[in-house]
Specification:
six-stranded mixed β-sheet; alpha+beta; single chain; 32% helix; Nuclear Transport Factor 2, Chain: A; 5 helices
């Protein structure tokens, strides 16, 4: 697989995760992650009733629990996870991805931006399939968001 094919496969995995999360297909969402994947979400209640400390999920069981939680399920079927623009850097069997994500939810029948975040995804190959090994998602405006962006951007030049 050349670098262009790898980048396309990586973009598809990231997009597929969001689509699976939006329709409640937890098995497909989990298949996008390594079994020991780490997922860090800052302010997981952003766009809802209050803020909270960072949420750190480790492994399929924790990710499954988050996706099947009452909080996440309450978004369905009125939710859309979108990503981009993204920049992708492939290095052999691993890759780094930087980009934005948005979560929309219906409010009075109209889609409303619920969460805008900057993300860093670390991708790895597992049986020749690209998967998410780690994702850090930070809400715009947080000091840690700027730190994450600044500390990773130079490696993409």
């Amino acid at each position: 697989m050349n670098a262009v094919e790898a980048e396309l496969a990586i973009r598809n995995v990231i997009g597929l995760y969001g689509l699976a999360a939006d329709c409640g297909d937890i098995d497909t969402a989990l298949a996008c992650h390594m079994k020991d994947a780490v997922y860090v979400v800052s302010s997981p209640r952003a766009g809802r009733d209050g803020e909270a400390d960072d949420l750190e999920l480790v492994g399929h069981k924790a990710i499954r629990n988050m996706l099947s939680s009452d909080m996440h399920q309450s978004l369905l079927p009125n939710c859309a996870h979108t990503v981009g623009p993204l920049v992708v850097k492939v290095t052999g069997e691993s890759a780094s991805v930087l980009g934005y994500s948005r979560v929309y939810n219906k409010n009075d029948g109209m889609p409303v931006l619920m969460r805008l975040a900057f993300n860093k995804w670390d991708m790895k190959k597992d049986d020749n399939i690209w998967k998410i090994a780690r994702r850090e998602s930070r809400v715009m405006g947080e000091e840690k968001t700027q730190d994450l962006l600044k500390s990773n951007l130079k490696s993409f030049r």
